[in-house]
Amino acid sequence: MSPSRRMAAVTAAPVPAIEADLADTLDPGETVLLMTRPSPLFVPLGPLVSILWIAVLSLFLAWLDRRLDWIPWRDDHVLLLGVVLASARLGWQAAEWTGRLYILTDRRVVRRGGWGRSTLEEVALGELAPPSVFRNTPERFVGAGTVVLERDRGGGLAWEWVSRPDEARMAVAEARARYGRK
Fold first, then answer.
1. pTM value > 0.85
2. Whose CB among 96, 111, 112, 157 lies 3.0–4.6 Å from 101's, allowing a Cys bridge?
3. Which residues contact 31 (CB under 8 A, 6 or more apart)?
Protein backbone atom coordinates (compact mmCIF):
# COMPACT_ATOMS: atom_id res chain seq x y z
CA MET A 1 0.00 0.00 0.00
CA SER A 2 1.40 3.40 -0.90
CA PRO A 3 2.15 5.84 1.93
CA SER A 4 -0.60 8.25 0.81
CA ARG A 5 -3.23 5.47 0.80
CA ARG A 6 -2.00 4.17 4.14
CA MET A 7 -2.11 7.70 5.60
CA ALA A 8 -5.65 8.18 4.26
CA ALA A 9 -6.70 4.87 5.81
CA VAL A 10 -5.19 5.82 9.16
CA THR A 11 -6.74 9.31 8.99
CA ALA A 12 -10.20 7.77 8.80
CA ALA A 13 -9.75 6.19 12.23
CA PRO A 14 -12.10 7.69 14.81
CA VAL A 15 -10.55 9.84 17.54
CA PRO A 16 -12.15 7.76 20.37
CA ALA A 17 -9.76 4.95 19.38
CA ILE A 18 -7.01 7.01 21.01
CA GLU A 19 -6.11 6.10 24.56
CA ALA A 20 -8.18 8.01 27.11
CA ASP A 21 -5.22 9.71 28.80
CA LEU A 22 -3.97 10.94 25.43
CA ALA A 23 -7.28 12.46 24.33
CA ASP A 24 -6.59 15.46 26.61
CA THR A 25 -3.35 16.07 24.72
CA LEU A 26 -4.99 16.54 21.34
CA ASP A 27 -6.49 19.85 20.32
CA PRO A 28 -10.10 19.99 19.11
CA GLY A 29 -10.25 19.12 15.44
CA GLU A 30 -6.76 17.60 15.39
CA THR A 31 -6.63 14.51 13.19
CA VAL A 32 -4.43 11.54 14.07
CA LEU A 33 -2.59 10.36 10.96
CA LEU A 34 -0.35 7.73 12.54
CA MET A 35 -0.02 6.24 16.01
CA THR A 36 2.56 3.59 16.83
CA ARG A 37 4.71 2.14 19.59
CA PRO A 38 8.29 0.91 19.56
CA SER A 39 8.86 -2.62 18.35
CA PRO A 40 8.45 -5.26 21.09
CA LEU A 41 12.12 -6.05 20.47
CA PHE A 42 12.83 -2.70 22.19
CA VAL A 43 12.51 -4.62 25.48
CA PRO A 44 15.22 -7.28 25.10
CA LEU A 45 17.51 -5.52 22.64
CA GLY A 46 17.33 -1.91 23.88
CA PRO A 47 19.23 -2.60 27.13
CA LEU A 48 21.56 -5.14 25.56
CA VAL A 49 24.75 -3.18 26.30
CA SER A 50 23.90 -2.62 29.98
CA ILE A 51 22.95 -6.30 30.41
CA LEU A 52 26.24 -7.36 28.82
CA TRP A 53 28.13 -5.08 31.24
CA ILE A 54 26.23 -6.60 34.18
CA ALA A 55 27.16 -10.10 32.94
CA VAL A 56 30.84 -9.23 32.42
CA LEU A 57 31.11 -7.59 35.85
CA SER A 58 29.32 -10.50 37.56
CA LEU A 59 31.55 -13.08 35.88
CA PHE A 60 34.68 -11.07 36.73
CA LEU A 61 33.69 -10.77 40.40
CA ALA A 62 32.85 -14.49 40.55
CA TRP A 63 36.25 -15.27 38.98
CA LEU A 64 37.95 -13.06 41.60
CA ASP A 65 36.25 -15.06 44.36
CA ARG A 66 37.75 -18.25 42.97
CA ARG A 67 41.26 -16.72 42.80
CA LEU A 68 41.52 -14.70 46.03
CA ASP A 69 40.69 -16.10 49.46
CA TRP A 70 40.19 -12.76 51.21
CA ILE A 71 37.27 -11.59 48.95
CA PRO A 72 34.21 -11.04 51.21
CA TRP A 73 31.64 -12.50 48.77
CA ARG A 74 30.87 -15.86 47.25
CA ASP A 75 30.69 -16.44 43.52
CA ASP A 76 27.13 -17.82 43.64
CA HIS A 77 25.95 -14.65 45.41
CA VAL A 78 27.59 -12.46 42.78
CA LEU A 79 26.03 -14.44 39.95
CA LEU A 80 22.62 -14.29 41.62
CA LEU A 81 23.01 -10.52 42.02
CA GLY A 82 23.90 -10.29 38.32
CA VAL A 83 20.72 -12.17 37.36
CA VAL A 84 18.62 -9.94 39.62
CA LEU A 85 20.16 -6.76 38.17
CA ALA A 86 19.70 -7.96 34.56
CA SER A 87 16.08 -8.90 35.32
CA ALA A 88 15.45 -5.50 36.90
CA ARG A 89 16.93 -3.80 33.83
CA LEU A 90 14.63 -5.83 31.56
CA GLY A 91 11.67 -4.97 33.78
CA TRP A 92 12.54 -1.29 33.59
CA GLN A 93 12.75 -1.51 29.80
CA ALA A 94 9.38 -3.30 29.62
CA ALA A 95 7.78 -0.57 31.73
CA GLU A 96 9.38 2.04 29.47
CA TRP A 97 7.98 0.25 26.40
CA THR A 98 4.43 0.32 27.80
CA GLY A 99 4.64 4.09 28.27
CA ARG A 100 6.05 4.90 24.82
CA LEU A 101 3.71 6.16 22.14
CA TYR A 102 4.49 7.99 18.90
CA ILE A 103 1.78 10.09 17.25
CA LEU A 104 1.62 12.01 13.99
CA THR A 105 -1.28 14.45 13.63
CA ASP A 106 -2.15 16.99 10.99
CA ARG A 107 -0.46 19.65 13.17
CA ARG A 108 2.49 18.05 14.97
CA VAL A 109 4.55 14.99 15.86
CA VAL A 110 4.34 13.77 19.44
CA ARG A 111 6.42 11.41 21.55
CA ARG A 112 5.03 10.24 24.87
CA GLY A 113 7.41 8.36 27.09
CA GLY A 114 8.04 7.15 30.58
CA TRP A 115 5.96 5.44 33.18
CA GLY A 116 4.85 6.70 36.52
CA ARG A 117 5.60 10.25 35.44
CA SER A 118 4.97 10.50 31.74
CA THR A 119 6.74 13.03 29.50
CA LEU A 120 5.35 14.56 26.35
CA GLU A 121 7.51 16.02 23.59
CA GLU A 122 6.10 17.61 20.46
CA VAL A 123 7.21 19.49 17.37
CA ALA A 124 4.86 21.37 15.03
CA LEU A 125 4.90 20.09 11.45
CA GLY A 126 5.79 23.57 10.20
CA GLU A 127 9.00 23.56 12.26
CA LEU A 128 10.22 20.15 11.07
CA ALA A 129 13.22 19.60 8.86
CA PRO A 130 12.94 16.64 6.49
CA PRO A 131 12.79 13.46 8.64
CA SER A 132 15.51 10.83 8.47
CA VAL A 133 16.01 7.26 9.64
CA PHE A 134 18.92 6.04 11.74
CA ARG A 135 19.58 2.38 12.46
CA ASN A 136 21.99 1.21 15.14
CA THR A 137 23.34 -2.34 14.93
CA PRO A 138 20.59 -4.13 16.90
CA GLU A 139 17.89 -2.18 15.04
CA ARG A 140 19.47 -3.01 11.67
CA PHE A 141 19.64 -6.70 12.64
CA VAL A 142 15.88 -6.90 13.30
CA GLY A 143 14.63 -4.43 10.68
CA ALA A 144 13.67 -1.66 13.09
CA GLY A 145 14.98 1.90 13.17
CA THR A 146 14.83 5.34 14.72
CA VAL A 147 12.94 8.11 12.94
CA VAL A 148 14.79 11.38 13.63
CA LEU A 149 12.49 14.42 13.67
CA GLU A 150 14.55 17.60 13.96
CA ARG A 151 13.43 21.20 13.99
CA ASP A 152 14.68 23.55 11.29
CA ARG A 153 16.44 25.58 14.01
CA GLY A 154 17.85 22.59 15.94
CA GLY A 155 16.48 20.31 18.60
CA GLY A 156 13.65 17.89 18.02
CA LEU A 157 12.80 14.36 19.00
CA ALA A 158 13.21 10.76 17.88
CA TRP A 159 10.87 7.83 17.50
CA GLU A 160 13.09 4.95 18.64
CA TRP A 161 12.81 1.28 17.65
CA VAL A 162 9.98 1.79 15.15
CA SER A 163 9.12 -1.51 13.42
CA ARG A 164 8.80 0.04 9.95
CA PRO A 165 10.87 3.21 10.14
CA ASP A 166 10.89 3.97 6.41
CA GLU A 167 7.09 3.93 6.27
CA ALA A 168 6.87 6.14 9.36
CA ARG A 169 9.40 8.56 7.86
CA MET A 170 7.41 8.70 4.60
CA ALA A 171 4.18 9.36 6.52
CA VAL A 172 5.85 12.22 8.45
CA ALA A 173 7.35 13.64 5.24
CA GLU A 174 3.94 13.54 3.51
CA ALA A 175 2.22 15.18 6.49
CA ARG A 176 4.95 17.84 6.63
CA ALA A 177 4.52 18.59 2.93
CA ARG A 178 0.73 18.56 3.11
CA TYR A 179 0.05 20.28 6.44
CA GLY A 180 3.31 21.80 7.63
CA ARG A 181 4.05 24.75 5.39
CA LYS A 182 1.02 27.03 5.57
1. no
2. 112
3. 11, 15, 105, 106
The span from the CA of 166 to the CA of 144, in Å, is 9
Helices and strands, number each (H, E), in the chain: 7, 7
The strand ranges marked E within the chain are 32-36, 101-105, 108-113, 119-124, 132-134, 145-150, 156-162
Q: CA-to-CA distance for 175 and 131, rounded, in angstroms?
A: 11
How many Cβ atoms sit within 10 Å of the Cβ of residue 178? 14
Distances (CA, A) of 67 to 24, 74, 105, 118: 60, 11, 60, 47
Judge contact between 168 and 144, C-beta under 8 A: no
- In tens digits, what is the pLDDT along the chain, a chain of 182 residues? 444 444 433 433 444 444 565 677 777 888 889 999 999 999 999 999 999 999 999 999 999 988 888 888 888 899 999 999 999 999 999 999 998 999 999 999 999 888 777 888 999 999 999 999 999 999 999 999 999 999 988 888 999 999 999 999 999 999 999 997 65
Helix or strand holding residue 12 (H, E): none
- Side chain identity at 141, as an amino acid letter? F
- Whether residue 105 contacts residue 13, with contact meaning beta carbons closer than 8 Å, is answered with no
